[in-house]
Every structure is written in structure tokens, then in C-alpha cells.
Known about the structure:
The protein is of the alpha/beta class. It has helices spanning 17-28, 40-52, 67-81, 104-133, 154-174, 195-198, 201-209, 219-229; strands at 8-12, 32-36, 57-59, 86-89, 136-141, 179-186, 241-244. The chain has one domain (8-245): Rossmann fold.
Amino acid sequence: MFDLSGKVAIVTGSTKGIGKSIAENMAALGAKVVISSRKPAACEKVADEIKAKGHEATAIPCHIGKKEALETLVSETITKYGKIDILVCNAATNPVYGSMLNAGDEAYDKIMDTNVKSVFQICNMVCPGMAERKDGVVIIISSIGGFKGSKNLGLYSLSKAAEQQLVRNLAVEWGPHNIRVNAIAPGLIKTDFARELWEDPQKTKAVERITPLGRLGDPDDIGMLTASLATRAGNYLTGQTITIDGGRMITDPS
Length: 254
């Protein structure tokens, strides 16, 4: 059931944190993984680490905010492996922290272009090939921020809510071709993205207090779930956003 042998997976933003864990776990299940982020050296390093464990990996750098770079990522993957079975859209950005009033048009455009538009673009590039084979998996890494308002992460949360609607639309359009499209909405995970929060003992304790499992998440908590969803275990799941936050969203924050 939990086998990805022969599958080809692109994972964007996969040189660290959640993306790296997703790539490592998919490779461990037998997938040929494409490691991608903006920095070539970082991509090569992670690909080499995966290959050193006896798995298959290829480094293809990509700036997801540039459509031509996405086209190169897709074309080089197909040249290398002949197909794309799994697409994981993990790369994202958040250049601002604070009120949306002070964010400005430039910040809005960067967040929406990187977090939403790039996902829309690469899915339109990859899904037709999946449809020809009548099989494919798309997983978008969203956030629990997409479910609620935020005083300091408003634009980021807006983009994550948009991703969740994009998942529903893609699932409806591509479902007849046996393409499953889902999102995963992590809570607070120990990554560089959230380092300011989890390296502060007081903030960590505050989050742990309102989390039923009493701890912050680790990248592997997301990586293992994502990899399993790409296997036959996820064959009848589509159009959904799966929250994985230690129970934080279902409890009274007081």
C-alpha cells in the first residue's frame, strides 16, 4: 500500500524543512524525486544526501516566481524521467509581518504570485501529462493560517486560503482523469520559516499550552503524511485540506 516505486515526484522548496522531509520520505518509499529550490548548490546537496542512502534524486533549481523557470523545471524532469506522477507545491514566501495596511502593493503581488499564481501555473503545466496516463497526485502545502484571520500574517493567510480553493477547483477539473488534488495545512512546525516563534521559550510554551498534543510539529510530521497521501492509501481522497497541527485548531485557545 505505502509504495511509490517507479513514481516520479517534483517537490518545490525541498532543500530544507518540510519540503526536504517530503522529498526524503517519498524517496524512501521508492520514488524518484526532483529536488528544487532557487539555489543550485543547496539542491545538489540534498540530492546527494538522498542518493547516498541508496535512493534516486535529481537536482533541478527553480525560482517558482518565474514562469519560464517553472517551464524549465517541468521540461527537464520529463527529459530526465519521461513523466511526472506526483507534484508537491511546497515553496512559498512571506516577506512581511504586520498589518495589511502597511504591506503595500509590492508585498501583495510577491506573496500572491509566489504562493498562488506559481501553483496555478505549474499545475497547468503538469496535469495534462498526468491526464494522458489517467493517474496523478498533486499536493499543495497550505497552512492553518488559511482558516482564520491574523493581525500579523494577513496576506500570507490570504494566499493560503486561496491555495485551498485552488485545490478544490483543480480536484473538480482533473478528477475525471484520475488526478487527486489535496492540500495539507500544517500548524506551527520547527522550520526556518517559523524560527522566530519556536526559538523563543515563552512563545513556544504559549503554543504548546493551546495544542492538545502539547508540542510543536517537526518537518517529518508533515513529510511522512504527504508521502503516504501520494501512495495508493490516498486513492479516493481529493479536494480536501488536511489539518495537521497537533489539535490546535479544534481546541479552545483560552
